[in-house]
Amino acid sequence: MDTNNPLTTEPPTTRARRRGLGWTVAILLLAGAGLAVWSVPALAPVRERLEGLLAQRQGVEGQAPDTAETAAPPVFRPTKQQLASFGIETVQAREFRPEGFAEGRIGVNEDDNVPVYSPYAGRVTKVMVRAGDRVKANQVLFTLEAADMVSALNDFQAASNALAKNSALLKLNQTVAARLQELFQAKAVALKDWQQAQNDVIAAQSDQRSAEASLQAVRNRLRILGKSDAEIDAFARSGAMSPETEIRAPIAGTIVQRKVGLGQYLGSGSDPAFVIGDLSTVWLVANVRETEVPRIKLGQELEASVIGFPDRVFKARINYMAASLDPATRRLPVRAEIDNAEGLLRPEMFATFTILTGRDESAPAIPASAIVYEGARARIWIERPDGTIASRNVTLGLTGGGLVQVVDGLKVGERVVTRGSLFIDRAASGDKAS
Fold first, then answer.
1. DSSP SS3 for 148
2. Which segment, 47-51, 290-294, 373-377, is predicted with the most confidence on average?
3. The domain 100-111+276-356 is classified under which CATH number: 2.40.30.170, 2.30.30.140, 3.30.530.20, 3.30.56.10?
4. Which Gene Ontology terms cover its molecular function (predicted)?
5. pTM of the predicted model, to two decimals?
6. Percent of the chain whose predicted confidence (pLDDT) is above 90
7. Radius of gyration of the chain (CA)
8. I need a surface site. Which of 142, 266, 275, 298 has the fewest CB within 10 A?
9. DSSP strand pairing (377-383 vs 372-374)
């Protein structure tokens, strides 16, 4: 074989020897690179990435559980500038209480709510108060010209005239009887004439009593219609009285509703002209969702908030639960009575309610901003003693005051990232944060 010819074929054993030598060198180079990855601190992110890939491969080949359960948690190594921009807080314990939520309104206390009806029919001639006005007991609310008043005045006039007539007749009969008695004693008249005169006096006295009773009955009617004794006596003297009747407030309070206007005719079946309520106490009326009903009980504490006073919380205890749901809203009305001495709460104000349905539970609490959600799962980022930040799955519970209860996965005293969690999450997953 010519060794100087470049086209001369090389023996197979030589080629095999060279190929084996090449594989040996390649393996040594790969081993050295792997050793560098696992030993050089600057290449730690590459090492962690390789560990994750190996764990994923093992999980697939060995039919292992979900990689989220077996893989090492993601770790982020922030720079000093990044660390300064994050918000990191020490986890504290906080009391959480199971709560239910509902919407509703402020209602008048119907136990101290009095409707004012007109006791007779007639046309309204004056209205003295408006809705929202405070009134005193016996204050005039409105007047009306009642047909019953006109009839009563006529009857009073007739009864007064009948009484005056009977009084005059009684005096006349008494004078005649006295005169006949003198004549009988002088034997100038017969006994029967004197006795007849006495009978006339007795009859006149009976008519007098009947006329007085009739007049008293009419006076009582006028009192019922709102006329005072002074007004009735003045009418008896002058014979003139206005047919208008005054309707007065039965209690002191606030005009909650007004359903009467000038010139309106009120009949016996009309709605109440006014509704007077004592607003020193009001009702908190909450409409509870059907799913919340099993947790609601009498005596539970209820907290109400209204738009007009966003910084105030009004507390009371449930003292009434309806027997059935409202068919229109499919919700259960519940209510509580609360003192309203300051007059801040007005009927028909919209209110939101928090009902405390259980006992306080102490647990680690974190701000809602610290939580990263992945579907049904929740994660947080924890600062470790070595300065790195690691991801951790947590189980969440109740919420309140901007804080979230952590049922599992976190202990009091650990440090959690409260600002910058999303940035860390994107950076650790390899995305570019903008």
1. helix
2. 290-294
3. 2.40.30.170
4. transition metal ion binding; transmembrane transporter activity
5. 0.53
6. 21
7. 50
8. 298
9. antiparallel
